[in-house]
Amino acid sequence: MFIPVVFMIVGGIIFLGFLASDFFEKTKISDSIILISLGLIIKYCGLIDVAAFEPFTEFIASLAISIILFESGMNIHLDEMATHLSSAFNMANFSFVTNSFAIAGLGMLFMGWDPLISLMFGFLVGGTSAAVVIPLAKKLMTEDDAVIAELESSITNVYNVVFTMVVANLIQNVTNHSNTALQSLLSYLSIGVFLSIITGFVWIGIAKKIWRKSASYMLTLAMMLVLYGFTEFAGGSGAVACLLFGLIMGNTKELSEILKTPRIGTGRFAKFSQEISFLIRTYFFLFIGLILELPYDIKMWAFAVSIALIVFLLRALIAKILKLPGELALLMPRGLSEVALASILIGLRLPNATTIMTMTGLTIITTNLFPSFILMFYKPKHKTNGNGKSLKQAA
């Protein structure tokens, strides 16, 4: 009877993921909150032995990171970047820097962490979660404005991974001379960039021959996983490699025009990528609930609430200064990539890694609940038809 029960549970979770996503579209209450809550309920009811999942935490986190960044790269289109890159880049840079350093300051104030640990946590939760922000932006904003939010989120997802791992690398090499640590860091990043570019352009040539075959996407996904593993084995950043590989594969149309080569249709490819991402996101958010320990320390909850408040205020101020839509202030949720990164830090056995995981979970909860609460009473300034287009555009 064990296998049939497992099958029913696995299928039921996918249904719950779909229902949570549909509930999010109707109510603006993030599906991540629903799935994390479900995981917490399962854990505290004793339905699953959570300890059995602990050995797989780093593996699941690395898999989630690779697929998240691959899809983020796929979502960054060169033609959209040409039009909206300046606004998105400014919003991403200012919000990430101010959020990260403000959160680092709060970390030293509330938790008593040293500056490097505080800065690492600030970078870890300094950006927005593309998995949550992109569908929310399409419901709140016009199509053009939603592209800015999408690009900003994709850019800050990259910053999250790169800068968090940079500081983690510095902490691990804190006894080394600074120039040695810097050389190690530059090598870590450049290997990922070099291997992803070579692999991406070689794979475009291969993809032309296999694109119409039924397993073309799965082969590309397999190539992405091989690239991640080989890059990490070579001492580089597998996360950066996956992002740039996704960027190349998501822009084959533009690259084919530049290189004067036959075009590759990626519509089915992008659709299947979204389906895989949905599956990973559903199970990973549930996994977060299973491994998350809700603290009894009121100081940690106050820290998480303070993060949500300061992030909202800073985003509102930056959007106003840059003369961008005010709705960007509400696009503040953290989510999948943040907790995946926190899981990797635990695997690296960094100081305070377990506490950072708990604080990351609390930050996800508060930064998702805060805008959801506001949206119960807020009417978007730009009316849309639900697909990110204004009613005027739709007409």
Describe this structure in words.
The protein is mainly α and 395 residues long. It has one domain: Na+/H+ antiporter like fold (Up-down Bundle), CATH 1.20.1530. Helices cover 77% and strands 0% of the residues. Helix 3 (57-75) runs parallel beside helix 10 and helix 6 packs antiparallel against helix 7 (143-172). The longest helix is centred in the N-terminal third of the chain and has 34 residues, at 78-111. The protein is globular. The N and C termini lie far apart (55 Å).
Largest sheet: none
- Listing every helix as H and every strand as E from the N terminus to the C terminus, the arrangement reads HHHHHHHHHHHHHHHH
Number of strands: 0
Classification by helices and strands = mainly alpha
Count of DSSP-assigned helices: 16
Helix content: over 70%
Q: Which CATH first-tier class would you pick?
A: Mainly Alpha
Distance between the termini: 55 Å
**What is the average of the pLDDT values?**
79
> How many separate domains make up the residues?
1
